[in-house]
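Supplementary notes for students who missed Thursday's class. We covered one full example, reproduced here. Read the sequence, then the structure, then the short commentary at the end.
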Amino acid sequence: MDEPSTGLHNKDLAALLALFRRLVDDGNTVVIVEHRLELIAQADWIIDMGPGGGTDGGEVVFTGTPRDLLACPASKTAHWLQKSMLHHPGRQRPPVL
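Structure (token representation):
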């Protein structure tokens, strides 16, 4: 799915994530292209492309879990995910808003 959260209100993210979890629990693989940290943080596996956007991107910067992504200095996603987590101390992943 290509940016399935586009146009959704923050309150709808929990329902979208629940749908994805149900699909996975039923044995399906769900592949998502997404920019919203709330959804990225809930992923089981991340493939982070970069190092920038457009002509500055196109390379795989990181593959792994959200927790492991936080230790990747080459990832701009990691930077913003860490910053987001500062607003939610004690959580390993930012909450779905």
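Commentary. The two ends are 21 Å apart (CA to CA). Helices lie at 10-25, 37-40, 66-69, 76-86. If anything here is unclear, bring it to office hours.
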